[in-house]
Amino acid sequence: MLTNSLTPQVKHLVLIGGGHSHLFVLKQLGMKPVPGLAITLISRDIETPYSGSLPGTLSGFVSRDDMNIDLRPLAQFAKARLIRATVEDIDLEAKIIRLPDRPDIHFDILSLNIGSRPDASTILGADEFACPVKPIDEFLTRWESVLAEAVQRVSNQEDYAITVVGGGPASVELALAMQYRIHAECKLALESESPLKLSIISSSSEILARHSAKVRRAALDTLRRRNIKVELGHRVTRFQVDGVQTNLGGEHVSDATFYATGASLPDWPARCGIAMSDDGFIDTLPTLQSASHDFVFAAGDAATIRGASRPKSGVYAVRAGKPLADNLVRFATGKRLKPFNPQKHALALISLGDKTAIASREGLSLQGKSAWILKQRIDKAFVARFSQLPSMETKLYLTKGLMDIEAEAELRRHAMRCAGCGAKVGGGLLGEVLDDLHGAVGMEKKPIEDASIIPLRDGRALLQSIDQISAFIDDPWLFARIATNHCLSDIYAMGETPHSALAVVGLPLASQRIMKHTLADLMRGCKHELDANNC
Ligand SMILES: Cc1cc2nc3c(=O)[nH]c(=O)nc-3n(C[C@H](O)[C@H](O)[C@H](O)COP(=O)(O)OP(=O)(O)OC[C@H]3O[C@@H](n4cnc5c(N)ncnc54)[C@H](O)[C@@H]3O)c2cc1C
Predict the structure, then answer these.
(1) If phi over 0 gives left and psi between -120 and 50 gives alpha, with beta otherwise, what is residue 484?
(2) How many whole angstroms separate alpha carbon 11 and alpha carbon 8?
(3) What is the rounded average pLDDT of the residues 61-65?
(4) Distance from the CA of 187 to the center of ligand 1, in angstroms?
(5) With a 6 A CB cut-off, is 354 part of the ligand 1 pocket?
(6) How far apart are CA 168 and CA 118, in angstroms?
(7) 529 vs 488: CA distance, rounded Å
(8) What is the pLDDT of residue 435?
(9) Is residue 376 within 6 Å of ligand 1 at its C-beta?
(10) Sequence-ordered list of residues with C-beta below 8 angstroms from that of 383, at least 6 positions apart, any chain
């Protein structure tokens, strides 16, 4: 955090991915700060979607805003630097994260909560002809165009075929929610036969294989009643422009193909040298440390805990949040780490797309509206937990009674605006002081300009401008780029071009090593923009 704090930063924890476990880590670090520990969150998505609400969003019951958790206020609450980027290259020897378009990031401790993505490694044509359910924002963009096309075709009584590949809860939820929404938009009864041809294809011999026979039967009955075709024991081998091919030689015509096949991890963590478990995920010890590097932690879908492998589901990612936060702090402060043994069973709530759901846990199940209401409640409470944060009051160290309440409130408001122009004294106040000064030294009063003009002997003039800007974002490289452009704009506002610049930098107290990295990032950011302006 680029502040004037007298707390030096001496260790750097970098969190990669804004997954469910890291939401807890950030909240806990906000509630119980660890003075001296610098925190950075690097995430591909800044608005991290909560997948539990995805079926509701497809059906049209939950807005996209309500299914997303904004990482910005959460990072601010944790006093963490937030960087939007996709990490794919870590030098574990040098403890450096390399990002394509910005300076390297040095770390002491690393935590990975990067989720998973559907596995299409054995299916040809996945990149060209089909859309995975994750990343969710890309999936939703594709779904919006499919929805528009499907509604138009179905309304015109023309066939429209959608195929969902995969036999787990996600496929069932997607197919039912898509059908509900298209029928609703076309004003068709839910269970009516229509030109919409929806099918689920799975290589498994059962749908919802991890659930009880009763749950499987209930889901199959619902799918049949809603005219969704289920083809089991067919392994999709190729996605094509107009459908899919299976190992049994069948060709299935499809206008839009989605897949929610089993979870998999991209290959970059293994490429960087992080040990993998047999199932292809990060091999972690019960302390959530990587089996190969004690300073690397992992949780959620991306990790498999030795001796405690669990299904890849959000519930387990959430449960790992607290032990992960505790162990990261313990590791940072040299304390003994505590093992985590995740619960063996979890409640699953499978949405049926029409404001009903199936609740399933260890052989027990319940289908109907009440299961949907429970799901809604749990999902809403989860998003709210990380969106409604305790207020962060600005602390002013002022002895009571020195000022009246209103003047103190004004001072507090000014302290909160500690950014760009808010950090400067007001224009009126500055004008008064300058007027006095002009009078005192007998100088002519001139209109206020963006830069001062110094006439040179050869008829040319030198413009001088100085600007001071407090860090309003906690990313030295990006901040330096913004600040540099802000400074240069005064020269451009005078209709001239910049020639050269001097920088004065104030840095927060930190260890020499962290201070060096911060200063290097700042100066690289300045240079990036000065080069772009030929200055
Ligand atoms: C349709 C559907 C419905 C589901 N419903 C449920 C449900 O009701 N209950 C349940 O328990 N589970 C459900 N799941 C499963 C659930 O989505 C996952 O198990 C859960 O999201 C995993 O959480 P995570 O914390 O591991 O990662 P995620 O929540 O997937 O988060 C990963 C984060 O890492 C970031 N990231 C990824 N790669 C990088 C990178 N290289 N660099 C930087 N950042 C990166 C992403 O932007 C994201 O912020 C559902 C899944 C689907 C598809």
Answers:
(1) alpha
(2) 9
(3) 92
(4) 33
(5) no
(6) 11
(7) 9
(8) 80
(9) no
(10) 50, 53, 66, 67, 68, 69
User: In angstroms, rounded to a whole number, what is the distance separating the alpha carbons of residues 290 and 283?
Assistant: 6
Mean pLDDT of 248-274: 94
Tell me which amino acid residue 57 is: T
**Of 130, 106, 110, the residue nearest 118 (C-alpha):** 130
Q: Is 228 touching ligand 1 by the criterion CB < 6 Å? A: no
User: Is the torsion defined by CA of 62, 64, 65, 68 positive or negative?
Assistant: positive
H-helix or E-strand spanning residue 532: helix 512-532
C-beta 114 within 6 A of ligand 1: yes
Closest ligand 1 atom to 173 CA: 1
Q: Is 83 in the pocket of ligand 1 (CB under 6 A)?
A: no
Ligand 1 centroid–CA 503 distance in Å is 42
- DSSP codes of every residue in 307-363: T----S-HHHHHHTHHHHHHHHHHHHTTPPP------S---EEEE-SSS-EEEEETT
Residue 423 is predicted with a pLDDT of: 56
Q: Which two tokens stand for residue 424?
A: 């400067």
211-222 pLDDT, tens digit per residue, is 999 999 999 999
Q: Tell me the angle at which helices 512-532 and 476-493 cross, rounded to the nearest 10 degrees.
A: 40
Is the per-residue pLDDT at 3 higher than 50? no
Span 361-381, pLDDT tens digits: 988 889 999 999 999 999 999
Band of the pLDDT at 421, cuts 50, 70, 90?
low
pLDDT at residue 516 in the model: 93
